[in-house]
């Protein structure tokens, strides 16, 4: 391989797919998808040329990566300072919850970031199972009791409303005022929840039903509506997607997202894959499902308050 370009996706014979983030006369700097380090790998030229070839498959996450800068001390190109390795993210989480996901503070209902989120999501899940689970939602739908479905759904949604809204204030309550559109929404929702694993046609049907509920809303604002109830109902399979938060977390934790503003299967399946990978890494800390993954994302990437400067003691 003789022609290398900055920003190009390449395949290394042993390191896998990566993105060229910088080129100079003596080296090519490649950030690999499997890397858990801040810095790109520095490969000497021309020795590295036989080991590199153009990537044969796309990688939306790598393509979107930006913010690499030269570190004068090491001579290598690194991610922005806000980026966290998995070890750094875990250290932040354990700092708040020393016993991981079994920590009494985490499973309680206090004010610490993470504990209130997890307990509220789990309570919402219990509410869904109690009021719409075990075939009850389908029974109401078959009986034509759309009002009953809406009432129970909004009761669940209100319990976690503060946890799932981005800046876009699309209201599920407003969207469900049309009985015909609401009926189509619930039919698509229960179809998606009925399968052992998320399926593309059923997800796309739900996304289309949500778009009908909100014909004039910004497409990006529909992501929380499309993904909220699947996440609440089956957190072992589904995941909530809040656009601004998801994009920020993907950049900071190095997760593949393939984000597009229009709710779509490619982005959602990428999110599920990243959430599943993160869940497996967190199981030694006691993580059970995507509720724990969602809480971990919030805790590990939260902005920390700056320490207050100590006031000098007054000598009297």
Low-confidence stretches: none
Using the alpha-carbon principal axes, give the shape. elongated
Count of alpha and pi helical runs: 14
Computed Rg: 23 Å
Mean pLDDT across every amino acid position? 88
Return the structural class. alpha+beta
- The secondary-structure element order is EEEEEHEEHHHHHHHHHHHHH
Characterize the quaternary organization of these chains.
single chain
What order do the strands of the largest sheet run in, or round the barrel if closed?
A: 4-3-2-1-5
**Straight-line distance between termini:** 75 Å
The number of domains is: 2
In percent terms, what proportion of residues is strand? 5-15%
How is the biggest beta sheet arranged? Answer: 5 strands, antiparallel
Number of strands: 7
Percent helix, as a range, is 40-55%
3D architecture notes:
By secondary structure, the protein is α+β, with helices and mostly antiparallel strands. It is built from 14 helices and 7 strands. The strands form 2 sheets. The protein has a 5-stranded antiparallel β-sheet with strand order 4-3-2-1-5, with no helix packed on it. A two-stranded antiparallel sheet has the order 6-7. A hairpin with an 8-residue loop joins strand 3 and strand 4. Helix 2 crosses helix 14 (290-301). The longest helix is centred in the middle third of the chain and has 18 residues, at 115-132. 33% of the residues are buried.
């Amino acid at each position: 391989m003789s022609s290398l370009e900055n920003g190009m996706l390449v395949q290394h014979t042993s390191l896998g797919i990566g993105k060229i983030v910088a080129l100079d006369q003596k080296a090519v700097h490649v950030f690999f998808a499997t890397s858990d380090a801040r810095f790109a790998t520095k490969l000497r030229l021309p020795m590295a040329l036989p080991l590199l070839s153009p990537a044969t498959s796309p990688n939306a996450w790598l393509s979107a990566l930006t913010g690499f800068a030269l570190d004068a001390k090491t001579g290598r190109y690194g991610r922005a300072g806000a980026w966290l390795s998995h070890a750094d993210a875990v250290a932040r989480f354990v700092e708040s919850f020393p016993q991981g996901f079994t920590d009494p503070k985490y499973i309680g209902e206090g004010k610490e970031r993470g504990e209130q989120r997890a307990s509220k999501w789990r309570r919402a899940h219990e509410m869904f199972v109690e009021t719409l689970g075990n075939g009850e939602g389908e029974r109401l739908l078959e009986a034509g009791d759309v009002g009953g479905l809406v009432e129970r759904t909004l009761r669940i949604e209100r319990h976690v409303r503060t946890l799932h809204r981005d800046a876009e204030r699309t209201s599920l309550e407003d969207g469900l005022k049309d009985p015909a559109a609401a009926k189509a929404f619930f039919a698509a929702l229960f179809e998606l929840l009925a399968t052992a694993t998320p399926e593309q046609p059923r997800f796309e049907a739900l996304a289309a039903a949500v778009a009908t509920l909100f014909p004039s809303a910004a497409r990006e604002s529909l992501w929380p509506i499309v993904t909220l109830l699947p996440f609440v109902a089956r957190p072992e399979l589904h995941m909530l997607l809040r656009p601004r938060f998801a994009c920020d977390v993907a950049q900071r934790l190095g997760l593949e997202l393939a984000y597009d503003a229009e709710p779509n299967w490619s982005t959602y399946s990428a999110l599920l894959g990243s959430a599943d990978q993160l869940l497996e890494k967190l199981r030694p800390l006691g993580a059970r499902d995507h509720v724990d993954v969602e809480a971990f994302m919030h805790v590990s990437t939260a902005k920390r308050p700056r320490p207050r400067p100590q006031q000098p003691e007054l000598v009297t």
